[in-house]
Amino acid sequence: MSDGTGAGSGVRARPRLTVLSGPSGVGKSSVLAELRGRDPELHYSVSVTTRKPRPGELDGVHYHFVDGAEFDRMVDAGELLEHAEFAGNRYGTPRAPVEAALASGLPSLLEIELQGARQVRAAMPEARLVMLAPPSWEDLVARLTGRGTEDPAVVERRLAIARQELAAEPEFDEVVVNDDVRSAATKLLDLVVGPLPGA
């Protein structure tokens, strides 16, 4: 685990790629929003997706929204570091911005689903995988059913996928429990910019 000497010391470790994953409804967007205010130098990858924007989402900020044909073109051209299908939509990580950030000395953070995290681990074994987990299964169920934005069948599919994702915890290097957004963001930031174990 991180020894806590990174984020607070003001000393950057060598740049690395951190992959944040976790089940739908665990609060990844809230934790990342908190993180953005803490460290403006950190590079955040903006994923490409074929799903439609939700209210308040902006193209190029939250996601790059594309159609299926453009997504296929990016896959065929090798422009995506990883790509996967989730809940009927496709998501991918543009490769060039991540490689450019790391080459310039900036730590890079990806927020992607389990399928994509596994692809990144295969392509870049040095990447650190972090799972954002709920305080309890009951808490996650309450968050998903409390959204009120999706029909029950979609929620059930998300819960089934969430069970699979949480079962993959042993594949991750670190687990951060999101019982408090500010606390979770602090722990995540230390993992992203702090020294690697043994460094």
TrEMBL record:
Q: Which Gene3D superfamilies match?
A: Guanylate Kinase phosphate binding domain, P-loop containing nucleotide triphosphate hydrolases
Q: What is its EC number?
A: 2.7.4.8
Provide the Guanylate kinase-like domain boundaries.
Answer: 15-193
Where, per UniProt, does this protein localize?
Cytoplasm
* SMART domains for this protein: GuKc
> Does the record carry Transferase as a key word?
yes
PROSITE patterns, alphabetized: GUANYLATE_KINASE_1, GUANYLATE_KINASE_2
GO CC annotation: cytosol
**A Gene Ontology molecular function term of the record:** GMP kinase activity
Region feature Disordered, mapped onto this chain = 1-28
**What reaction does this enzyme carry out catalytically?**
GMP + ATP = GDP + ADP
**Which parts of the sequence bind ATP?**
22-29
What Pfam families does the record point to?
Guanylate_kin
Identify which top EC class this enzyme belongs to. Answer: transferase
Q: Mind listing the UniProt keywords for this protein, alphabetically?
A: ATP-binding, Cytoplasm, Kinase, Nucleotide-binding, Transferase
Q: What does this protein do?
A: Essential for recycling GMP and indirectly, cGMP.
Family of this protein: Belongs to the guanylate kinase family.
**What's the protein called, per UniProt?**
Guanylate kinase
